[in-house]
Specification:
mainly beta, 30-stranded parallel beta sheet, 57% strand
Length: 207
């Protein structure tokens, strides 16, 4: 049956053939969870396979994991070499991604999304305050940051639109197969190759 803990729950080297839930914090290492995984407070995992949705009511830190489902946290998310088959959402925190693969939309409802170290994003990124910053990674799908900056460094963007609203888009190096239909200023540096339409409210600067 499922595992429900009212206190902080820690597991190492375990196999759960159903769901795991903690009404406090949850730490899972070197394990496998077949069902859903949830914590009311902070969540931490390393070297673990999750067979369904993972949800944290606090901050979330995951390293070296496979998630077959959606990933959601109430606060900040720090993800290192994680593969997620569904969406990745922080309702009230920033998202830091290093490596890994994300098949669904990556979204912070409030805050900045930072992506680096050869991550693969397949369905776009939506961010709030402080916008989107991506380096040395591959992206498909729309990049949307309301009226916040978007900064791309050595990014391979294979499809989508880039929208920073009343703010700036800065592209340094890389190959961008995308349109920029909405920005205040667009800056292109270091031989970045852009195969798409650029539309800035104020200026487009190529260097």
């Amino acid at each position: 049956g499922s595992v429900l803990s009212g206190a902080p729950l820690t597991a190492n080297g375990a196999t759960f053939n159903s769901s795991v839930s903690s009404n406090s914090s949850l730490t899972i290492d070197n394990s496998e969870v077949v069902g859903t995984t949830s914590s009311a407070n902070n969540f931490s995992a390393t070297n673990t396979v999750f067979g369904n949705n993972v949800t944290s009511g606090g901050a979330l830190t995951i390293t070296n994991a496979e998630i077959s489902g959606n990933l959601q946290a109430a606060n900040a998310m720090n993800l290192i070499e994680v593969n997620v088959s569904g969406t990745t959402t922080s309702t009230n925190g920033l998202i830091n991604i290093s490596g890994g693969g994300y098949s669904g939309l990556v979204r912070s409802n409030c805050c900045k999304v930072t992506i680096e170290s050869a991550a693969v994003i397949r369905a776009g990124v939506t961010a709030g305050n402080n916008g989107i910053e991506i380096s040395d990674s591959t992206v498909e799908g729309d990049l949307t940051a309301a009226n916040n900056p978007i900064v791309l460094t050595n990014v391979a963007m294979n499809a989508g639109n880039i929208s920073a609203g009343q703010n700036n888009v800065t592209i340094t190096g890389g190959v961008i197969n995308a349109n920029i239909p909405n920005a205040h200023r667009i800056f292109v540096y270091d031989g970045a190759q852009i195969n798409g339409d650029l539309k800035a409210r104020y200026e487009v600067r190529l260097n």
